[in-house]
Amino acid sequence: MDKYNKFKHLLEYFVSHLEWVVNNDTSHVGYNTYIYPIKNFKKGGQGWNNDKIQDQVKEWSDYDGDTICINVYSPNVKSRACYLNWKGTWDNVRPSWNKNHIESLYITQEESPYAKEELICSISSLGLFDGSSPNSILKKFFDTYLYIHMNVNQLVSNCVSILSSNYNLILTGAPGTGKTYLAKKIAKAMGATMENGQCEMVQFHPSYDYTDFVEGLRPIKNEDTDTINFKLTSGTFKKFCEKAYVNYSDSQKNASEISKDVQLKDAYDQFINDILDENSKKGKILPLKSGEMDIIGISDNSNIKLKTQGSKSDRTYTVSFNRLKKLAQIYPDLKSLDSISNIYKSVTGAIKGCHSSSYWAVLHYLYANYTNSIQSNSNIKEVDLKNYIFIIDEINRGEISKVFGELFYSIDSGYRGEKGRVFTQYQNLVEDGDVFEDGFFVPKNVYIIGTMNDIDRSVESMDFAMRRRFAWKEIKASENTEMLDDFEALKDKIVYKMNRLNDTIWNEKTNEGIEGLSAAYHIGGAYFKKLKLYLNEDKSNLNEAYQRLWENHLQGVLFEYLRGSFNAADNLKKLEEVYYSEDIHE
C-alpha cells in the first residue's frame, strides 16, 4: 500500500473514530469498516506516548520510518483538539465540526485548539469513503502535511510537483545557484536519499558513454587460465532501474504473495547451501519424470548448473532463481507441477526459452524437500511503492544522444513502465532471468533530475527531441538562498550583496545591465558560501573574507564572462566597485 492509500485509510479511520465517540451512530459510512471489527475498542489516548489507541491505526501509521500518531481526548472530543500528528512534533491534522459532525480536516503546526489553518479540505473534496483511489486533492493534502513536517520550502514543493507530473526535470540556471543541492532536496522530499538507496547521482562529462550509463562489455580476468574475457555489465542507470523495479513489482503483490516469494527464496538458498556442502546428501541428483539430472555446481551469481545423467554430451544447463520464481507463480505447488503433461510446452510457455526439464526438476525438488519445512512468516507486510530518483549532474556535458541510446524512447513520461520496453544494443547477451531479459524499460517509480548551466561554452548542446522529454525549471540566484542559512545573522547582508552584484550584471526588472550578459550569468549562492573558508570563529573579519572571495573566486569567473567583449576591463572594474561598495542594507 503506497503512502497516499495509507493516508486515506488513516483519515477515514480518524473521522470514523470521532464520529463514533461523539454520536454512537452505527449507520455512519465508516463504522462497519473501521470501528466494528475492533475488539476492546479504545476511545481515547495519546498515540504519541505509545498509548494502546495507536494500535488501532498501526496498519496505516508508518511512513518511511516516520510515524503519524492518533490522539483523541474523550469524552468531549470537539473541545479538546483531537489530532493526528507526526511523532515528536506539532505538525498535525485536526477536524473541523459543524454541529455534531466533521465537515472538514485541516493542517496546522500549532498546539492551540484554535490553531492557524495551513490548509483545509472538506471530507467530500478529499474523497473520503468514496471507495476510489486517492484523488489529487488528498495527495496535495498529504504532500503539504509531509512538507511542513520536513520543513520543505515552496521552491522544493513546486519542483516536486513538476517532477511528479513529468517524471523528468532539468534544473537550469546560472552557475552556483545550488541546482545540485536543490536536486537532492527534491529527492529527499519525495522520500529518496543516498542513505536509503533510493537516490543516486552521476556526473556527465565528455568521456561518459553508453557503457557507463546503460550496459556494455567489461574485461573480466579468468583466474584459472590468466586470460581476459568480456562480460556484459549493467551501467549505473540500468542497475538503478533494476533495484527500483524490484520495489515496484513487490508493491503490486499482497502480503500472501510476498510471503510465498520469501519462502521460495529461503528454500532456494538452503538448497544452494546443501549443494555446496560436501557432507549433505541433498542436492546432488534431481529426479525427472523419466531419468535424472546431476547437479555439477553453482555459478558466481548463484545459478544452479546441471547435466542430464547418462548423457554422452558435455552440454550443461543453468537454472536462475529469477526465472524459477516466474515459474513458481504459475505452478505454485507440487500438485500443479505433477499435473503437467507436456513439460516443454508448459515451462517454456511460462518463462520462454530455457531447458524446461531443468527448471521443472529444480522447482519440483524444492517443493518436495524444502518449502514444507519453511514456515510462512505471518508478520510480512505489503511493500510500499517507493520513489527512486536518479540525478544527472551537468547533464549537458555528455554527448546526450550517445549516452542514452535507445533509452531516448523509454525515458519519455508517456512510455514509463513495460509499454516503453526497448531492445538495447547488447540485448542478445542479456542473461536468462535478468529483470530486463525481454527488453529494457524505465520503471514507473523512477524519476530523473538533470542539472545544467546554459552558458557553459565547453559542453554539447541537447537536441530538441531530448529536450521535449524533460520539464525545465530555471533556478535563480535570488530564490534559492537556503544554502546560506548557516551564516545565520549575516545571511541577509550576504544575500543583499549578492543580489546587488547580480542586478549590475543584469537587472531582470529593468532589463538593463552589462551588454552581452543576462541573468544566466548571475553569481549564485554557492560562491558566497565559500566565505566560510575565510571567516574566523567570531566572524569579525567579514570584510577581509569578502576580499578573499573576490580575489580567489569571483574575479576569475567574471573575467571569463567578459572575455573578448567590448569594454571588458571597464565592466570588470564596475562590477568590482559594486561588490566592494558600502553595504547599506539594514
From TrEMBL:
Domain called ATPase dynein-related AAA: residue spans: 168-225, 384-470
* Domain of life where this protein originates: Bacteria
Q: Which residues form a coiled coil?
A: none
Which GO MF terms are attached to this record?
ATP binding; ATP hydrolysis activity
InterPro entries in alphabetical order: ATPase_dyneun-rel_AAA, Methyl-DNA_Rec/Restrict_Enz, P-loop_NTPase
Protein name (Swiss-Prot/TrEMBL): AAA family ATPase
- Classification of source organism: Bacteria, Pseudomonadati, Bacteroidota, Bacteroidia, Bacteroidales
